[in-house]
Amino acid sequence: MQLRTDVTTRAEQVAYLAGALDGLYAGPAIPSPIRGGRRAALRRLRAFDARGYARTRNDVAKRGVSVLSPYLRHGVLTLAEVRDSILSRFGHTPDTEKFVNELAWRAFWQLVYAQLGDRIQHDLEPAKHRSRAPRRQLPPEVAAASTGLVCIDESLRELYTTGYMHNHARMWVAAYLQHWLGVDWREGAELFYRHLLDGDPASNSLSWQWVGSTFSHKPYIFNRHNVERFSDGAFCARCPLAAGGCPFDDSYENLAQRLFGVSLAELEGRR
């Protein structure tokens, strides 16, 4: 399923969105931490402390991220003013360097989109390695956030009810759908685009292609140790599959063989 570009009238848009929402997660709502408007954006920008960002930005539990992306996505803040605010308050440090580097990625995605247009909705390069999982559409348990995997389900519930998901969790979900379940990346990209308040065609589609290796030199994979490390062990502590049956509970070497039939060195392009 690709992102629809042929719904032009208001009636078509309403009908398309109504159909797209059928069967999606309908559990209890979680209040969204994101509020709209320039004033709210500036408050969040001023409140963000970039000290320690390089160390904590991947931590889904500690959340050392700015959550400024929705405001950047909709033009409430610009990349330049966010950069200048962070550098003026915290100076040039490894933390601010890493933060500005993330802003640069957003700018890069936009430049690629400006150059290629709707071509980003298709594989930009051949996948370096294809998953052994059979290609399939989005399973209903993903739409319902009921896979039984706490790290995946809680991340999806946050997406469905707040319009946000931590970037590291986005990588887990994107890798799980593509490499473990064999879901076409466009199915996952549409799911994210439908719900993310910061979703835009460039960052969304190109990030999914980065995970799938159609716009990167290798597919991104993760394992249980990665989940435990970047969630303070909270997800695994609550997961019914932690004692046995977790599909991520393996070494990267074994996962490379299981998912792609190659060694880890081959997966990473090392000789």
UniProtKB/TrEMBL annotation:
Keywords tagged on the record: FAD, Flavoprotein, Lyase
What does the record give as cofactor? FAD
UniProt domain Cryptochrome/DNA photolyase FAD-binding: residue ranges: 99-223
InterPro entries in alphabetical order = Crypto/Photolyase_FAD-like_sf, Cryptochr/Photolyase_FAD-bd, Cryptochrome/DNA_photolyase_1
Q: Which GO cellular component does the record give, naming just one?
A: cytoplasm
Q: Name one GO molecular function term.
A: deoxyribodipyrimidine photo-lyase activity
- Please list the residues that bind FAD: 53, 99, 198-200
Q: Name one Pfam family in it.
A: FAD_binding_7
Which BP terms does GO give this entry? circadian regulation of gene expression; entrainment of circadian clock by photoperiod
On cofactor binding, the record's note says: Binds 1 FAD per subunit.
Q: What is this protein called?
A: DNA photolyase
